């Protein structure tokens, strides 16, 4: 039977890719899930696995050709001359099955050992290719249950736990804490069905396998990369390849061109000498990957966008009175407390519809106006700030927004957010008031063009109708990208938010 090989899903908003490399040719035997070719998009490289065992037939799309999502790439004649399942790479060799081992073998720290099962890095999310092993929860010789967490991995944005695929005993730990491992890489081995031995030595984690030398690579660079190098006057030796086996990809050439044309960054000033007695009382800790990413993105936002901040203040009496009147019946009916964030989300959407520039982004020389409202809500976690996204918030009720924010906030603090839950936001709300901040200037969350900063509610004397009265007031700050948002638009946006919060009935009347 003929099986079709088609272009897989390429990610959010990506509709086409270039066939970079075919790893097989017509007539070659192929196994299930064996990689047939590599596709290159604007942002990531995607490998296409074989859907069935058999013989590769016709190659419909040649190297260098552009194809759309679900386009036909090749055909496979199923069953004829099928290849055996592909072996693991040299850095991930599996041990011999227990049946071939001598009967006296102990099986890596356990008794009654059976098959040894590999523990690999789980899926890290779109475009994430590596992670750092932050914590091992088990050591060699420990008994583990199915799906029991063995270790925690840290990526640029989220923490991922690696569960045990079987019940048994940890036989070997291959990547120690602090080491970096690629997506799909081998972390450890577990002896299936074995029982822990009290006398088993607590072996130290093995050092991470050394990466093969990148010198003298003998692989074909991506066609689009060759074209880009020719246009830029570069050779393969001028570019560091990040593709399979060091293959140079299009994005590698773009980075090389950018680094060549960009001015060299100013070197960090050397640290001032510290007295020996002070040095003994210091502690030096490496920044986590998440903190490094936060630092880089915030600095990039300042360097790239023409960022300005405009301020206003809002009388929270209207929202607080409405909330106090209905919070009991609201919680009883919907099972969630009525907070302030749902009011702010609704007020911001109301303002974004009037000032669409704040909900847009710059893409090269184009402005992309987004007719949807995916609201990012900044959440502080023990590891740093993350921004989960409430998608299509304009189509949600107050209770649905409160439930979603509560759910995402809990997952963020537990390090359980997926990459998809933090991507695609069109506007961000940050609440520094929960920490007592009275006023601040939030930094943009690229590529978004606006971010609203909430602050502490504080009673202040205000003049209302010629009388001095005490009102619960909050300062609001809108940081925006002046390249796309004019001052008039920014002020109008913030005034509309203020009006909607001071008189929540305007949200119901769409005024």
TrEMBL record:
Cofactor: (R)-lipoate
Stretches with biased composition (Basic and acidic residues): 244-254
Domain Lipoyl-binding per the UniProt entry, residue ranges: 2-77, 116-191
Protein keywords: Acyltransferase, Lipoyl, Transferase, Tricarboxylic acid cycle
Superkingdom, taxonomy of origin: Bacteria
A GO CC annotation given for this chain: oxoglutarate dehydrogenase complex
Compositionally biased intervals (Gly residues): 105-115
Pfam families, A to Z: 2-oxoacid_dh, Biotin_lipoyl, E3_binding
GO molecular function terms noted in the UniProt entry: dihydrolipoyllysine-residue succinyltransferase activity
Stretches the record annotates as Disordered: 79-119, 198-283
Classification via SUPFAM superfamilies: CoA-dependent acyltransferases (SSF52777), Peripheral subunit-binding domain of 2-oxo acid dehydrogenase complex (SSF47005), Single hybrid motif (SSF51230)
PROSITE patterns the UniProt entry points to: BIOTINYL_LIPOYL, PSBD
InterPro entries membership: 2-oxoacid_dehydrogenase, 2-oxoacid_DH_actylTfrase, Biotin_lipoyl, CAT-like_dom_sf, E3-bd_dom_sf, PSBD, Single_hybrid_motif, SucB
Enzyme Commission identifier(s): 2.3.1.61
Residues in Peripheral subunit-binding (PSBD) domain copies: 220-257
One of the GO BP terms on file: tricarboxylic acid cycle
Composition bias type Low complexity, residue spans: 198-213, 256-276
Enzymatic reactions: N(6)-[(R)-dihydrolipoyl]-L-lysyl-[protein] + succinyl-CoA = N(6)-[(R)-S(8)-succinyldihydrolipoyl]-L-lysyl-[protein] + CoA
Subunit-level organization: Forms a 24-polypeptide structural core with octahedral symmetry. Part of the 2-oxoglutarate dehydrogenase (OGDH) complex composed of E1 (2-oxoglutarate dehydrogenase), E2 (dihydrolipoamide succinyltransferase) and E3 (dihydrolipoamide dehydrogenase); the complex contains multiple copies of the three enzymatic components (E1, E2 and E3).
Similarity annotation: Belongs to the 2-oxoacid dehydrogenase family.
UniProt cross-references to PANTHER family, sorted A to Z: DIHYDROLIPOYLLYSINE-RESIDUE SUCCINYLTRANSFERASE COMPONENT OF 2-OXOGLUTARATE DEHYDROGENASE COMPLEX, MITOCHONDRIAL, DIHYDROLIPOYLLYSINE-RESIDUE SUCCINYLTRANSFERASE COMPONENT OF 2-OXOGLUTARATE DEHYDROGENASE COMPLEX, MITOCHONDRIAL-RELATED
Function (record text): E2 component of the 2-oxoglutarate dehydrogenase (OGDH) complex which catalyzes the second step in the conversion of 2-oxoglutarate to succinyl-CoA and CO(2).
Protein name: Dihydrolipoyllysine-residue succinyltransferase component of 2-oxoglutarate dehydrogenase complex
Organism: Albimonas donghaensis
